[in-house]
């Protein structure tokens, strides 16, 4: 079973690339982030015509997450996180699909830091940890997949100096991510690439893609029951180089059974 995460950076702008990726790689489950569309204008029919059931949590022009499943529709369990009722950002969607608990996550960027946006990022990570602990306690195969906007370690970035002041690399962001791992979640891509040097994002600016000046911010965290079934974890890097591509590359895990 292949479960992927893909920050599509706008379904309206990238729909041909999304459908192309689905057709060529046929993931069993795909979690999308930054769909950047309202619930009413999400291109559900195009995705269904490609053979995927889909649920989504949209927001006009910003954010937005979705979960796709080949040949069936995910059973939605939760949209949004508890803790801040006034938070209207569409950043979290959770479902049961194909015997696996899946969450599609678009964590706040947090820039500029310090400031209210960075404070919101850290509060959001605390709220995610609370929900993650509830899922973990159920002892089900679970995957928290998405764009975490956290560069976990120095070997997850092309240049530590270039990103040193960015919210993605601040000690507080990294500590919040490490707390999730300490709670018992497995960073799937790191487990398969312990030396680092694997990127999932390349900025559109500064010639980042041709220079391979990227970093790793798209993560798939596995519960113990999912980690026991882990076969592989990789990045579909080639899709980043296509015309009008997202600035992220699809990232995926393969599970047994």
CATH architecture: 4-Layer Sandwich
How many DSSP helices?
A: 8
Mean pLDDT: 97
- State the distance separating the first and last CA atoms: 7 Å
* Name of the CATH superfamily: Endonuclease/exonuclease/phosphatase
Low-confidence blocks of residues: none
Radius of gyration: 17 Å
Succession of helices and strands: EHEHEEEEEHEHHEHEHEEHEE
Q: What is the CATH topology assignment?
A: Deoxyribonuclease I, Chain A
Strand residue content: 25-35%
Strands in their spatial order, largest beta sheet:
3-4-2-1-14-13
Task: Output the CATH class name.
Answer: Alpha Beta
Total separate domains: 1
Question: What is the tally of beta strands?
Answer: 14
Structure class? alpha+beta
Percent helix, as a range, is 25-40%
Shape summary? globular
Task: Give short descriptive properties of this protein.
single chain; 257 residues; Deoxyribonuclease I, Chain A; six-stranded mixed beta sheet; 8 helices; globular
Q: What does this entry look like structurally?
A:
This protein is an alpha+beta fold and about 260 residues long. The protein has one domain (about 1-255): Deoxyribonuclease I, Chain A, CATH 3.60.10.10. The chain has 8 helices and 14 strands. Strands 3-4-2-1-14-13 form a 6-stranded mixed beta sheet. The chain has a 6-stranded mixed beta sheet with strand order 5-6-7-8-12-9. Strands 10-11 form a two-stranded antiparallel sheet. Strand 6 and strand 7 (about 100-105) form a beta hairpin. The radius of gyration is 17 Å and the shape is globular. The mean pLDDT is about 95.
């Amino acid at each position: 079973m292949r479960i992927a995460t893909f920050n599509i950076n706008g379904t309206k702008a990238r729909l041909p690339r999304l459908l192309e990726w689905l057709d060529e790689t046929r993931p069993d489950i795909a979690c999308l982030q930054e769909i950047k569309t309202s619930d009413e204008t999400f291109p559900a029919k195009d995705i269904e015509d490609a053979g995927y059931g889909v649920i989504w949590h949209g927001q006009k022009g910003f954010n937005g997450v979705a979960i796709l499943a080949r040949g069936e529709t995910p059973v939605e369990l939760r949209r949004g996180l508890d803790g801040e009722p006034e938070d209207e950002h569409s950043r979290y969607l959770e479902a049961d699909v194909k015997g696996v608990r899946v969450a599609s996550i678009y964590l706040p960027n947090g820039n500029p830091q310090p400031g209210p946006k960075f404070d919101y990022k850290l509060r959001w990570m605390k709220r995610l940890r609370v929900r993650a602990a509830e899922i973990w306690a159920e002892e089900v195969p679970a995957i928290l997949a998405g764009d975490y906007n956290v560069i976990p370690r120095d070997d997850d970035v092309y240049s530590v100096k270039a990103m040193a002041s960015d919210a993605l690399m601040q000690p507080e962001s990294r500590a919040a991510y490490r707390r999730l791992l300490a709670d018992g979640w497995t960073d799937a891509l790191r487990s398969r690439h312990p030396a680092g040097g694997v990127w999932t994002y390349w900025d559109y600016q500064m010639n980042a893609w041709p220079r391979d000046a990227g970093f790793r911010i798209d993560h798939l965290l596995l519960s113990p029951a999912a980690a026991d079934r882990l076969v592989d974890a990789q990045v579909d890097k080639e899709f980043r180089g296509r015309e009008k591509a997202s600035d992220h590359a699809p990232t995926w895990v393969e599970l047994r059974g």
